[in-house]
Specification:
single chain, about 170 residues, alpha+beta, eight-stranded mixed beta sheet, 5 helices, 8 strands, globular
Length: about 170
């Protein structure tokens, strides 16, 4: 989504979040093939299935894909969904390389998504996780997200946070 505002660099830790490019698909597929990440996604794809899925993610007009980098190395991915006129911006994917988990990368990505939402006139940010993903649940609660009743699946939790953006969409 080229029109949306959404770049960020945090100089103190050399952490940056930038829009994904087609040339990044291979690096993203390698991240998603890390066993702890594919297991948390409940998905055990082949490398070919990963590349096909990544290409679909990258081309979806209702989504925007961003890479999280530290010192130029890809350490995570955040996929935003609901860009086509909804009041809620959904973080439909947040994956952090295991070596960088517990180092505020996830929290920085949430903060960045909240700024993205405000800058693009969304009223709230939402994210889902599985009921057994205790680190993610703790992160969302600590970041001020509230748990909502899930209508889809008893094994998943939905979290939302109001971001005090302008009412309505442009």
């Amino acid at each position: 989504m080229a029109a949306a505002k959404g770049s960020m660099t945090e100089e103190s830790s050399a952490l940056s979040i930038r829009e994904m490019r087609e040339a990044d698909l291979d690096a993203l597929s390698r991240l998603l093939l890390i066993p702890s990440i594919s297991e948390s996604l409940r998905w055990r794809p082949s490398p070919e299935e990963i590349m096909d899925a990544c290409a679909r993610y990258w081309r979806d007009p209702d989504e925007a894909n961003y890479l999280i980098e530290r010192n130029g190395d890809m350490i995570g991915w955040i996929k935003l969904n609901g860009l086509a006129g909804q009041e809620t911006l959904w973080i439909s994917m947040l994956a952090i390389h295991p070596e960088h988990q517990g180092k505020r990368v996830g929290r920085t990505a949430l903060d960045w998504a909240e700024r993205f939402a405000r800058d693009n006139a969304f009223r709230r940010v939402g994210i889902q996780t599985t009921a057994d993903n205790c680190p993610a649940i703790a992160l969302y609660v600590k970041a001020g997200y509230r748990m909502e009743p899930s209508r889809e699946d008893a094994g998943r939790y939905v979290f939302t946070k109001d971001v005090a953006g302008p009412v309505g969409r442009p």
